Amino acid sequence: MAFFLETLLGGLMAGMLYSLVALGFVLIFKASGVFNFAQGAMVLFAALAMARFSEWIPQWTGINSLLLANVAAFVIAGAIMFVVAWIIERLVLRHLVNQDGATLLMATLGITYFMEGLGQSLFGSDIYKIDIGMPKDPVFVLESVYQGGVLINKEDVIAAAIAAALVAALSIFFQKTATGRALRAVADDHQAAQSIGIPLNRIWVIVWCVAGVVALVAGMIWGSKLGVQFSLTTVALRALPVVILGGLTSVPGAIIGGLIIGVGEKLSEVYLGPFVGGGIEIWFSYVLALVFLLFRPQGLFGEKIIDRV
Which of 12, 75, 77, 275 could form a disulfide with 49 if both were Cys (CB 3.0 to 4.6 A apart)? Predict the structure, then answer.
């Protein structure tokens, strides 16, 4: 039982990190109808900015405090992501309003390769680390309940807590603020939102900025765990099944879908992997997403598509 709980908790922690990346997809799709394939590149670019500025700031200013250096690097990286969001809206999206979905998808693919190249030019192509002070040592809990206790990773717990706090903040933003309600109105109907005076272009800039902050947090956590390298863009591919499972238009769906995928991957690898030769963790989420595409293409929490003839 203790081993099962360890596997379950590990899956939940991984699922929260998948959910962070999936949130970027959902936020942009809700507000603009664009499936942002550049979300992985945004995570990489934000992580590179965070990693490099956390190295450069102590050299430029003489600051010896790791906390101050990381806070300053986070603020600068966040400002850079805001500028990136503004440029994307101004130079790309504004000129593609009402275009076909395939056109918008190709535009985000172009943004992906541009951001990868720009990130390499500005920050370099080595493997960098982000040290935000999260403890790496595992600990044993529930030792009085199970013999030997349950092994959990402190870093995973803190990362999951950060992800949960960000999700809670986004939920409050969408439900309680005027800007959040405007974003929801734009998501429901672009033309109706414009007819009551909601500026569509400004809303798109805001949602891309929010997605940029989400990408920064996701990049910071993934970079702290795995190092900042260009393979980080593949995190977006890991989040695709999460979006399909939870629904492209549902923020809660991104969270629950991420938890289901994370737990499913870990449990299937541990309990089914020995029977199929291992490696099931790599393809389990995609098979599950395929099943949902066949029987419930809108996902668990997505809006059902009704075509009236």
Answer: 77
The range of the structural domain enclosing residue 201 comes to: 23-233
0.70 exceeded by pTM? yes
Task: Specify the residue for token string 């990346």.
Answer: 21
Residue 93 is given by DSSP the state: G
CA-closest candidate to residue 9, choices 117, 134, 149: 149
Rounded to 5 degrees, what are φ and ψ at 153? -100, 120
Structure tokens at 23: 């949130």
- In this structure, is residue 220 part of a structural domain? yes
Cα end-to-end distance, the chain, whole Å: 54
Q: CA 159, 173, 68, 43 torsion: positive or negative?
A: positive
Q: What is the number of domains present in the chain?
A: 1
Residue 238 lies in a domain: no
Quick check: is 145 in a domain? yes
Summarised one tens digit per residue, pLDDT across range 247-298 is 887 778 888 888 888 888 888 888 877 777 667 878 888 888 888 888 888 7
